[in-house]
Structure formats: structure tokens, C-alpha cells
Design goal:
The protein is built from 4 helices and 2 strands; from the N terminus they run αββααα. The protein is an alpha+beta fold. It has 2 domains: about 80 residues, no CATH class; about 55 residues. β1 and β2 form a beta hairpin. The chain is flat and about 60 Å long.
Amino acid sequence: MSDNIIQLNEQVIKTELKDLVKQSVEETLNSLLDQEAEELTHAEKYERTNARKGYRSGHYTRNLQTTSGNISLKVPKLKGIPFETAIIERYRRRESSVEEALIEMYLAGVSVRRVEDITEALWGSKVSPGTISNLNKKAYGNIEAWRN
């Protein structure tokens, strides 16, 4: 009888799954941005039609912090028409669930310095104390508006 024992390295599996999810999120968001550009221009890349309203002019990269990690987006640049995506708000650098998690940690009594360490462990990048303070000011403003 064979005594083949399969051993799994749990840390390697978690890392691989996290990378797979991050890559999948990045590819999905980039393809959605391309689809939006096609709908706005009424043409695919390099397609010449009479219905075309604008032209592509490359793309620029933009980082977005998500619960899956920091991803790089390729936002299309268009000539002749403005490109404002419905997927990501303008100037937004973090997914809203990340901001909500930061606010919840602070309101639960976690110190600002500890929040920095937690964000680095979870998402791979630190959030500055100033950012956390600004988010909390927004939250307190909303709480006061609700109370009044």
C-alpha cells in the first residue's frame, strides 16, 4: 500500500488566490473601460466608420486601491469627445468599501497608527494619518447632518 501524503502550503495557496483575484479585477475593470470608450466613440479600436464620433488617443495609467490590492487601470484618452467613466468616480483613488473599512476601524477605537499597519497588511500600501483624519471628518459631518 502506498503512503502518498499530499501536503499543502496554505500560505502559498492564499498568495496565489489573492494574486489571481487581483489580476481578474484589474482585467475586468480595464475591459469595462475599453467598452465604455467604444460606446462613446461608436467604433472599436482602429475601426473606421461614418458613425464614429471621436478618436482614441492612447491611455493613461491610474492606480486604484481595492480590497483585492492596488490595481493599475488603463484609462482611455479620447479626442473629440470627453471621456468620463461611470465605473470610477473622477479623482477617486480608493474603492468605497476600503474607505468604509477605514472609517469603521477608527470608529471602533483603533488608533490611527494601528490603522496604517492594518491597511499595509491587508492591501499592501499604507494610508496616511491625514487621509484617515479627512475620512473621519467627512463621516462626522454626515453624522451631524443626520442628527440635525
